[in-house]
Amino acid sequence: MGKKSNSNSNDNVLPSTHPSCFIGSSVIPIINKLQDIFAPLGDVDDRLTGLRLPQVAVIGSQSSGKSSVLEALVGRDFLPRGSDICTRRPLVLQLEKRSAGTGDDSLEWGEFGHLPEKRFYDFSAIRREILAETEKEVGVNKGVSDKQIRLKICSPNVLNITLVDLPGITKVPVGDQPSDIEARIRNMIKSYIKQETSIILAVSPANADLANSDALQMAKEVDQTGTRTIGVITKLDIMDKGTDARNFLLGKVIPLRLGYIGVVNRSQEDINNNRPIREALAYEEQFFRDYHVYRGLSDRCGIPQLAKKLNQILEQHIRNVLPTLKTDLTSHLVAVEKELLAYGEALESKGERGALLLNILTKYSEAFSAEVDGKSQAMTTKELSGGARIHHIFQSIFVKSLEEVDPCEDLSDEDIRIAIHNATGPRNALFVPEVPFEVLVRRQIARLLDPSLQCLRFVYDELIKICRACETVEMRRFSELRRQLEE
To 10 degrees, what angle do helices 479-486 and 449-469 make? Predict the structure, then answer.
C-alpha cells in the first residue's frame, strides 16, 4: 500500500530545489482562510454554491502518477497506494506553510475536517485515516463516492495552496463499482474542473500515447483556450529505449498555453522499499542532468519547476479572480445581513414572546383595517383594492348577477294554481296559503346560489390579497403564525 512515514527528522530536510523555495505570495493565504471559513458549510447553504474558490484539481487516468506528484509537492509519503484504484473519494488537500521553529509547533502535522482539533504527527497514521474514512463511506471493495475528505497539512516544506486529488479515470468496473463507473467518475471530475476558478493539473504518463490522454481530453472539454490547464508528464524514466518526451514537453503533440512539466516518479519498488521522497527528488534532478535530451529543457523538467510554475500561475489566477470574488462575497453579505435583521432579536422568556406576538397581531390588525377602510399608505391608483374592491364586488358584480335572474323563470300560472290547490286540500281558500308560497319561493331562491358563491370567491380572494399585503417584517419569521392568520 505504501511506505511508512520515516520519523527521522533528517528525512524532512529537503534539497534547496524543493517546491517550498518558490513560495512568496500574499494572496494564497487569503484563499486558504476563506477555505477554512467555507469548509464547515459544505453545500448546505445554496446561496454559497456560486462561490467557488481557486484551487488546483489534479486529474488523470488510474495509475497515471497523480498521487506521486502530490506527495512530491508535499514532500511526505501519506497517500494510499496500490495497483488498483486508490483515490476513491475526492481528497481536498489544503497545504499551509509554517515558518520553521522549535518545539512541537515546528513539526509537520495534519488535521482532518471530520476530526477537528486532532493533529496527526505520524504521516502513516494520516494514510490509515484516509483509508478508514474512505471505507466507512464506500466500503472495502473498490467503491467510489463524490463525498469529500478534507485534510490540512501544516509544514515549513509545503506550498500555501489547495489541491484536490480526484479519483482516477477507469474503464472497467471492478469490485463493488457500478457498470457506469467511468461516466460517474468523469461527471465527478467535471464538476470540479468546469469552474473557471480551478487550475487543472492534467497528469499523463509518458509511456502512453499523449493523444489518448483522458486527462487532457477532459481538460480540453472545459478549458478550450487552455488558460487553466497545466500538463504534467510522469514516468519519463520508464519510456521505451530510443524514445523520449521532448516533443511532449515542447507542446508539439498537443499544445497547451500553460505548457508541460516532466517529472520522474518513485517506482512501486521504491515505495515498497520505503525510499524517502528526498532521495527521489535528488534522483530526479540527476536524471534530467544526465539525460542529454532534456538538458535544454531545464525549465520544463522536475518537481521543483512544476511547483514554481504552479505557484506563479495560481497566484496570478487568484489575483484575477479576487475582484469578482470580493464583489460576490459583498453581495452575499448584504443579503445575509438583511435576512438576519428580518429575524429580529432572540427571545428568551415567555413574556418576551407574548409581547412580540401581541405587537405583531396589533400591527397586522391595524394594517388590515387600513386596507379595508382605504387608509393604507401604499394606496394604488392603477386598480381597485381593499375595501373598495369588496364594495365593487357587491355593488356591481353581485348585483348585476342578481338582476340577471328572472324570479318567474320556469314558473307558470298553472304551476302556481296547482301549488295553491295542493295546499288547500278538499277546501276552497279565501287567501293564498303560506305553504305553496314557501315551496315556490324556495325553488326560485336556489337560483341565487351560483351568483352568491361567485361573489364569495371574489371577496375571499381579495381578503387573501389584503392579508398578504399586511404582512409585517416580523411575520416572515413565523411561518406557522402566518398560515394561521390566513386561515
Answer: 150
